[in-house]
Design brief:
The chain has helices spanning 2-13, 22-33, 37-41, 59-76, 102-120, and strands at residues 15-20, 86-91, 94-97. It is built from 5 helices and 3 strands; from the N terminus they run H-E-H-H-H-E-E-H. Mean pLDDT is 87; it is low at 1-20. The protein is mostly helical. Strand 2 and strand 3 (94-97) form a beta hairpin. Strands 1-2-3 form a 3-stranded antiparallel β-sheet. The protein has a single domain (21-136), classed as Up-down Bundle (Phospholipase A2), CATH 1.20.90.10. It is a peripheral membrane protein. InterPro entries: PLA2, PLA2-like_dom, PLA2_histidine, PLipase_A2_dom_sf. The active site is at 67, 111.
């Protein structure tokens, strides 16, 4: 019970230290955009969620394409961006990546950049691209 109370106090104060992977990326997105990462971005456009192909539908979808590219580059370096844990802080509307290995810092940076990209492109978000059918994704994929 004391742990739950401590977590509530930390959240109320606006400071949370978080460890995670894709779940923490979802958390970052939620904190910065106010949207539910899974339902609002999980199957958005042609690049948000698992996989990605074709031309991004809008600026929001390009955020996901860039994030996929960031993860791809890290995987080539031997990092495991979808499962590797990392530390970050969210305080007063800002995300700061914490200490850790070079992979942990790089993964956090990828996630942070994508979350801010989504925040900065909230105006481009279109409900019609939510749960977008993958077979409609055509055209050239952006290069990494």
């Amino acid at each position: 019970m004391k742990i739950v109370l401590l977590l509530v106090v930390l959240i109320i104060c606006g400071l949370t230290e978080v460890q995670g992977n894709l779940l923490q990326f979802q958390n970052m997105i939620g904190k910065l955009t106010g949207k539910n990462a899974l339902t609002d971005y999980g199957f958005y456009g042609c690049h948000c969620g698992l996989g990605g192909k074709g031309t991004p539908k809008d600026a929001t979808d390009r955020c996901c394409s860039t994030h996929d590219c960031c993860y791809f580059k890290l995987e080539k370096k031997g990092c495991k961006p979808k499962t590797q844990t990392y530390n970050y802080k969210y305080q007063s509307g800002s995300i700061t990546c914490g200490s850790g290995s070079s992979c942990q810092k790089a993964i956090c940076s990828c996630d942070k950049a994508a979350a801010y990209c989504m925040k900065n492109n909230l105006r481009s978000y279109k409900v019609k691209y939510r749960n977008f059918p993958n077979f409609l994704c055509k055209g050239n994929e952006p290069r990494c």
